[in-house]
Design brief:
This protein is α/β, with parallel strands linked by helices. The protein has helices at 3-10, 25-33, 51-58, 89-96, 104-111, 125-138, 172-175, 201-213, 228-232, 283-296, 302-311, 339-346, 369-376, 392-400, 418-428, 450-462; strands at residues 14-18, 37-42, 62-65, 77-79, 100-102, 115-120, 143-147, 165-169, 184-187, 220-224, 240-245, 254-257, 260-265, 268-274, 320-325, 328-332, 353-357, 377-382, 412-414, 434-437. Helix content is 32%, strand content 21%.
Length: 465
């Protein structure tokens, strides 16, 4: 079924869209433009939307705002926001009354006319998605990037042709109710994450598995052999399984040999990308490139891969070099909202760094972060401790309990105010130092999202004298 056919099927029906934000506004506009009756629901009050509320109403949209925004849902079709669980009482009640609960991404997979590549995992999703897209573009393909990044692609469907590619970052929230999978699926890794929303680790892992469970035998899934949870997915895969492995060249299909990303082809092997030619730092980015190489194998020439790797500077807020001042380099890794991300960031530098960490908790363990901080950090600034559910106590406990911790070797400074925390880190930095914002926590203690946090960090750094 194409997009026009799907929209035709909604004519004469009532539709609700839950969440009025960057991701859902284009969906609301698409539906309204097709003459469909839309109720847009959001927990925020009208004043938070400014002119957008007036504009939507002018187009014929009904608004249901504030604390009661989910009350009385009985529309024929309800598009849920990925961040809202599908089994909340309001959705269950609506479904009992006959409503269809869906999402923008589920509909996209139903109507998308082009090739699909999906990327999920606990870490590295955005960078791997972006690398795959850049490689395909450099090879002359027409590429659309969306899912958990960019803007919703449903409104772009009419532009897509059969030979085009949609490259999608897919979160566990988006995948939770998915019943279709992309042609090429990539799982970068899995570690405890978002356990404040998921019922537990089992549900989180099961949601991630939906990226490949609905494939056919001709399609393929790319899995990280070095990660126990992703390696175990191979037993459930309906199609071809391709492993990438940085640590075990015997068992991977895309492996690291003599610091060169290599594709194994039966008894032979093809050297594709020397690690020294990858512009973005960190072994985790070597793994991201390995996953990307596996995804585009047969679609992109090796020379194109090498050219892109040498010039691609990375994605904003991911170990992003902000500035060098008085011999001190400042890096923005605001995307690091979990311990595993921060660990990867710390391991990207050959020297000990000054680390700024802390924020809101996702109910995940922090024990593994302590030894890494002891090994890779010379001065630790913890911020966000004045907020209920802060990770500061967890991070502090993990550090104090880590083997080899000595207070004189690793001073810890507590600064609740974010701006002052950054300034304190800068004040303790000397020529040759690295100051790294890598919070190991969500931004919701002080900011709307990690982008806002990263942008604030960059603004402070750029005003240092």
């Amino acid at each position: 079924m194409g997009l026009n056919e799907y929209l035709d099927s909604l004519k004469g029906k009532r539709v609700a869209v839950i969440g009025i934000g960057v991701s859902n506004t284009p969906l609301i506009e698409l539906l309204l433009g097709y003459g469909i009756s839309v109720t847009a629901c959001d927990k925020k009050e009208r004043g938070a939307f400014g002119d957008l509320a007036d504009r939507l109403e002018k187009w014929g949209c009904r608004l249901q705002l504030g604390e009661t925004y989910l009350q009385g849902l009985d529309q024929d079709v309800i598009f849920r926001s990925p961040g809202i669980r599908p089994d909340i009482p309001e959705f269950l009640a609506a479904a009992q009354r006959g409503s269809t609960i869906t999402s923008e991404m589920e509909v996209f997979f139903d109507v998308c006319p082009c090739h699909t590549i999906g990327v999920t995992g606990s870490d590295g999703k955005t960078t791997t998605t972006t690398i795959i897209a850049e490689l395909l573009k450099a090879a002359g393909k027409t590429v659309y990037v969306g899912g958990n990044i960019g803007h919703p692609l449903l409104s772009e469907v009419t532009k897509m042709k059969n030979g085009d590619y949609a490259v999608l970052e897919l979160s566990s929230f988006q995948l939770l109710t998915m019943e279709k999978s992309p042609e090429i699926a990539v799982v970068t890794n899995l570690a405890p994450n978002h356990l404040n929303v998921h019922k537990g680790m089992e549900e989180y892992v099961r949601a991630k598995a939906n990226i490949f469970l609905h494939q056919n035998v001709a399609q393929k899934v790319i899995l990280n052999y070095d990660n126990d949870l992703t390696r175990a997915f191979a037993d459930q895969a309906p199609g071809k399984v391709v492993f990438f492995s940085r640590k075990d060249p015997q068992h991977g299909d895309v492996v690291l040999r003599d610091d060169v990303i290599t594709v194994k082809e039966g008894a032979s092997a093809r050297a594709v990308l020397p690690v020294r030619d990858i512009a973005i730092p960190g072994v985790h980015n070597v793994e991201n490139y390995m996953a990307a190489v596996a995804a585009v194998d047969g679609l992109v020439d090796d020379e194109v891969i090498r050219t892109v790797a040498a010039s691609f500077a990375g994605v904003e807020h991911r170990i992003e070099l902000v500035r060098e001042l008085h011999g001190v380099r400042y890096y923005n890794d605001s995307i690091a909202s979990s311990p595993t991300r921060t660990i990867a960031g710390l391991r990207s530098f050959r020297q000990k760094v000054i680390l700024i960490a802390g924020g809101k908790d996702k109910d995940i363990p922090y024990d593994a972060l302590g030894p890494e901080i002891v090994e890779h950090v010379k001065f630790l600034v913890l911020t966000g401790g004045d907020v209920l559910g802060s990770t500061v106590p967890k991070i502090c406990t993990a550090v104090l309990n880590a083997p080899g911790y000595h207070a004189q070797d690793l001073p810890v400074l507590f600064v609740d105010d974010f701006d002052k925390a950054v300034q304190a880190a800068a004040a303790h930095a000397q020529e040759g130092d690295v100051v790294l914002l890598s919070p190991a926590s969500t931004s919701f203690d002080k900011f709307a999202n990690f982008m806002e946090r990263g942008n604030r960090f960059k603004a402070i750094v750029n005003h240092l004298e």
